[in-house]
Amino acid sequence: MKILISFSNRLMQRYMPDPFLLVILLTFFVCGLALIFTSSTPVQIIEYWGGGFWSLLAFSMQMVLIIVTGHVMASSPFFKKLLGTLANLPKTPGQAIILVTVVALAACWINWGFGLIIGALFAKEIAAKVEGVDYRLLIASAYSGFIIWSGGLSGSVALTIATPGHFTEHLIGVVPTSETIFSVFNLVILAGLFILVPIINRLMVPPKDKAFVIDPALLEGKEIFEAASGEQAVLTPADRLENSQILSLLIGLLGIAFLVYYFVKNGFALNLDIVNFLFLFIGIILHKTPRQFLKAVTDSVKSASGIIIQFPFYAGLMGIVSASGLAGVLSNAFISISNEHTFHLFTLWSAGLVNFFVPSGGGQWAVQAPVMLEAAQNLDVSLPKTAMAVAWGDAWTNMIQPFYALPALAIAGLKAKDIMGYGLVIMLITGVFISAVFLFL
User: Fold this and answer.
1) 438, burial (CB in 10 Å: exposed 0-12, middle 13-18, buried 19+)
2) All residues at 6 or more sequence positions from 299 whose CB lies less than 8 Å from its CB, including other chains
């Protein structure tokens, strides 16, 4: 394990570029693949790239908000005290790594956006409390919980095919979550990962003299607002409104009222919009006044810069892969060597490969579903299991795909190469387990 970790970390530290440079390199690489393996002309590829460039704007804004609202909520006095109390539980670096991993896994199972933000914030809090814990491994452990998102309650593929009128209904029908999220093979994978991932992370804890320990003072956030005594001696009517606790409470209660209505009507159906809505209005209430809340927002926005710039480039990649037919070419390459026994295994692997170019669960399902479902019908194998093989392939290789790591990295103040070495180890070991389940169960 020590040899594997050392090699993996050296590999990523030496060759893993900044995520922005990586997406630029991937752009040229995908352009080359499309030219070689599809009938697309250079002009068409440029058209596909530019045409798709802004297709993730809504999703990008959701991701920006999940960072900002999560930061704002966590920076409130209440949550700082709560996270600080939980961070007092572990007494050793090993215990800290296990606790962060389990919390991140549980949170990502409930909702992947919620898990990403809570895991990273909790990891930072623990780093300030537990002496000698490796900060890079701590953040990597928080991100490792994301591996189970597609098999959890917010898994986009499973929820899509369970919704009447979805785009593959003519091929697969409406598939209840009892055949996907709550199926035996999916529960086996989830149970195995809840045991396996914490153990892997614990085994990667370095000796004390090799640990990357960060000064707790560097993790302390800036004051969220200025003391009242430092404000203007004479408050204008506008100043009074900006410092009104009543206004914040009223608008906060309006938001909570909608959430109560939503959950009563829809059950515990979390999605990115609801998580952002929840974080936003809790943050407004906990910061007590509009001025304090807006100061917290200003301090949080800078953490979202990577997402704002990089996500359009990934949208351009998706445009090329989808419109050129490259996703189908890659999928068909795996299908050509499959039979009824190995089909789901190769579907998993093909989805893991396509994920590097289409790092969105829903987007990947859109480009792979027609090819994989038709092949599954021809081989007379389980269609719900085929869908989940695509979903798990997407989740599995996210461990070394920085697209979704950006929120955690922004919160932690680290670069992708700082945690991807650990992610590579997790991907390799869990990949064997997940592959075995799809091959034998």
Assistant:
1) buried
2) 71, 75, 221, 222, 224
The token pair that represents 198 in the structure block: 């914490």
Q: Which residues of 221-236 are buried (b: 16+ CB within 10 A; e: fewer)?
A: eeebbeeeeeeeeeee
Tally of CA atoms within 13 A in the half-sphere of 391 that contains its CB: 26
Q: Are 45 and 335 in contact (CB under 8 A)?
A: no
Coil, strand, or helix at residue 81? helix
pLDDT digits (tens, 9 = 90+) for 236-246: 888 888 889 99
Predicted pLDDT at 233: 53
Enter the tokens of residue 107: 């949170």
153: Cβ contacts below 8 Å, ≥ 6 apart? 109, 110, 111, 181, 268, 270
Residue at token pair 């068909």: 332
> Computed from CA positions of residues 422, 428, 429, 433, in that sequence, does the dihedral angle turn out positive or negative?
positive
Report which of 163, 124, 164 is spatially closest to residue 143, judged by C-alpha positions. 124
d(CA 410, CA 417): 13
Q: What are phi and psi of 284, to 5 degrees?
A: -60, -45
The continuous run of DSSP H or E covering 96 comes out as helix 93-110
How far is residue 89's CA from residue 219's CA, in Å, rounded to a whole number? 19
- pLDDT per residue as tens digits for the range 221-271: 544 334 334 444 567 888 888 889 999 999 999 999 999 999 999 887 767
Residue 308 pLDDT class (50, 70, 90 cuts): confident
Task: Please check whether residue 1 is in contact with residue 204, taking contact to mean a CB–CB distance below 8 angstroms.
Answer: yes
Q: How many CB atoms lie within 10 A of CB 213?
A: 15
